[in-house]
Inverse folding.
């Protein structure tokens, strides 16, 4: 596959040349994007889940309820900040800060667009990029677990401690599957630079299979479909989102690792969750969905991938992935902890290892070019993986009759209502009837009318 680097595609040589004020503008933009995405993300989730549940959602504070999240943030800021007596004050304070900083830092190596002109300076729409930018993303994701674990431990309470322990096991387990999925990306792209990975997903490439030149999809979500499916599942588990929100688990752990947090510290944990969701959506867009490049058929327009337009395509892809996060929360129930861990270690990890081995073997075949081999095997493997995950694992059993259900219950487990659904009268009713019965008989009336 021949990749043509256009003039607007940034390379590593384009970074490190910006004046200090331009760097500050980029850093401020990334921070403001994270905060605004959180505010709008909470509103977006409430509206979408409300739509799914056939209820309006927030619609009173501001137009379309847009200021509801801001009002909730102000309310949390003025709430009383309660510090448990048994808490470690220093760690208790810094734990939510660690979670927010790690989530925001990952945005520093995410490309928002191509080379543009800002106040006369040609610069890439990205804070910075390094030759191992993907490892920076993994490091930020790995460090985020410290905020949750330390927050649960520093509270000095049982439920937060259990939530922190569950978080550490969950996030570390799914980081393994996430890392292996990324391995497939830079095996194919030949680089760990995020701007380089986006450039390698350029459209309009040609594949040569058996002497035939065929157009090839550029997105790694298609070329590396198994890696994309596993990576997105791992991001849902990594960000503690439903159906993998076991660290919080209100029905089991009150509120998990942040049970003892209130006021602004609780708001920071909430902020970190939504920033992590937006950040992982941006990372997924960068690694698998072509980054800021326009999807087909917008690419038929020659100016689609130049200027400031690519930011629109990038934000559109991020919003689409955030919608999938919300969609999963509104439709799937929470998994049991043993099911969740079994799924990560016994399903995703073996499949990912086998796929990496297959991908390595394909690269050693000399008859086809790399992209042709990946398409020939990767797309069928990805479809098979999706079918395996969604296909029912058991044959549905016939539903037993009501009498069979009653007979199968252990004797004395709990009282059952009569099968004719006629509930016997209460003792108070029986006592009233017994008291009135002599008077009714004396009056010549039927006692059953009472």
């Amino acid at each position: 596959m021949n990749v043509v680097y256009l003039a607007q595609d940034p390379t590593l040589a384009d970074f490190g040349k910006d004046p200090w004020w331009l760097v500050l503008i980029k850093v401020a933009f990334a921070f403001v994007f994270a905060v605004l995405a959180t505010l709008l993300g909470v509103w977006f989730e409430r509206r979408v889940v409300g739509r799914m549940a056939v209820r309006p959602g927030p619609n009173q504070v501001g137009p379309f309820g847009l200021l509801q999240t801001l009002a909730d943030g102000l309310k949390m800021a003025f709430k009383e900040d309660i510090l448990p007596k048994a808490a470690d004050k220093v760690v208790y304070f810094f734990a939510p800060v660690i979670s927010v900083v790690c989530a925001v830092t990952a945005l520093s190596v995410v490309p928002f667009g191509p080379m543009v002109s800002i106040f006369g300076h040609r610069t890439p729409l990205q804070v910075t990029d390094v030759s191992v930018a993907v490892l920076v993303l993994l490091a930020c994701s790995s460090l985020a677990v410290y905020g949750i674990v330390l927050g649960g431990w520093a509270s000095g309470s049982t439920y937060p401690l259990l939530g922190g322990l569950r978080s550490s096991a969950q996030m570390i387990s799914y980081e393994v599957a996430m890392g292996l999925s990324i391995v497939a990306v830079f095996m194919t792209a030949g680089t760990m630079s995020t701007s380089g990975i986006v450039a390698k997903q350029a459209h309009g490439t040609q594949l040569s299979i058996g002497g035939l030149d065929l157009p090839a999809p550029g997105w790694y979500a298609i070329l590396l479909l198994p890696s994309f499916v596993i990576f997105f599942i791992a991001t849902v588990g990594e960000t503690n989102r439903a159906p993998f929100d076991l660290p919080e688990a209100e029905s089991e752990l009150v509120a998990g690792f942040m049970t003892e947090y209130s006021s602004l510290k609780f708001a920071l944990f909430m902020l970190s969750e939504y920033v992590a969701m937006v950040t992982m959506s941006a990372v997924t867009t960068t690694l698998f969905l072509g980054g800021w490049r326009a999807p087909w058929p917008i690419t038929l327009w020659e100016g689609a991938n130049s200027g400031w337009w690519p930011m629109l395509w990038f934000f559109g892809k991020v919003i689409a992935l955030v919608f999938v996060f919300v969609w999963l929360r509104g439709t799937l129930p929470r998994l049991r902890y043993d099911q969740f861990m079994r799924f990560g270690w016994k399903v995703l990890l073996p499949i990912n290892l086998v796929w990496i081995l297959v991908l390595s073997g394909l690269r050693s075949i000399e008859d086809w070019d790399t992209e042709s081999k990946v398409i020939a095997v990767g797309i069928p493997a990805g479809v098979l993986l999706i079918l395996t995950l969604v296909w029912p694992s058991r044959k549905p059993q016939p539903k037993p009759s009501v009498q069979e259900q009653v007979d199968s219950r252990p004797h004395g487990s709990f009282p059952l209502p009569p099968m004719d659904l006629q509930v016997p009268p209460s003792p108070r009713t029986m006592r009233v009837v017994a008291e009135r019965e002599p008077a009714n008989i004396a009056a010549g009336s039927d006692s059953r009318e009472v």
Q: What stands out?
A: Strands lie at 115-118, 121-124, 205-209, 212-216. DSSP finds 15 helices and four strands in the chain. Residues 59 and 65 are 4 Å apart (CA to CA). Residues 20-52 form the longest helix (33 residues).
